[in-house]
Amino acid sequence: MKSLGAVVLGVLLALLLGLLLVFGIFAPVLTAIFGLQGGVDTLGATGLPTMLVAFAAAFGFYFGGMATGYYAPARRRLHGVVVPAVAFVISPALNLLSGNGAFPGVVTLWSALAVTAVLAISFVASYVGARRGESLHRYHESLKKRRR
Fold it and tell me: CA angle, corner 10, sides to 104 and 136, nearest 5?
């Protein structure tokens, strides 16, 4: 049960950070850097630049994987890598429930490649974050042992 809680924490943290980056407090800065023009470099029907989505996914899933890697009871890296997999399953499921299809706006080969690239970036960032969370947990446990 603790494993599920750690994964849920990681997914929620990753999605929250991604939303804050794309639509929230960091949006004005990042849109000035990446721009919000339409065209070939946008992802799906949202019109968001692919680089902005990739950056938000990498940032969010890094910290989501780190939190999961820190709080998981065992197999910390595996739990950290589960975070983008769970998010990737939840998103199409919610899209199907809303009646929009599994991947609305992904109609061309380039948009499918962009989604695949963002997913790969998410897995890599989550793995790196899970390794960091695992090392932080080991460090904190060694500090606890030294205090005793």
Answer: 145
pLDDT tens sequence across 41-76: 555 545 567 777 788 888 899 999 999 999 998 899
Widest distance between CA atoms in the chain: 61
pTM to 2 decimal places: 0.80
User: SS in 3 state form for 93-106?
Assistant: HHHHHHCCCCCCCC
Please report, for residues 84, 101, 124, 137, the alpha-carbon distance to residue 41 in angstroms, rounded to integers and kept in the order given.
Answer: 23, 22, 22, 39
H or E segment and range at residue 43: strand 42-43
Which amino acid is it at 143? L
Q: Vertex 32, ends 26 and 35: CA angle to 5°?
A: 110
Give the rounded percent of residues in the chain with a pLDDT score beyond 70: 84
